[in-house]
Amino acid sequence: MVVNGYGWHERDRPPTSDELLEANGDWYRHIIEAFGPRRCMFESNFPVDKLSCSYTVLWNQFKKLTRGFSADERAAMFHDTALRVYRLPRV
Description:
It contains three helices and no strands.
């Protein structure tokens, strides 16, 4: 996003998922380490984030970030934590 200060919106080409991960990875890893995967969840700010990158690129960044986590930990960050926090029904 423009307000995040990375300048992605000023480039000729949008960032790749690897570039996003390079810029943001330390932040995400710190939070996951501090709170644990079962207290973290991924989200997006779309369509506002579209100023910086595509939806697919954003989510691919998250997938790459979590490659080293177990299947249960990944499920927590991509689904289960949100289900629990927002008290959504299981379908």
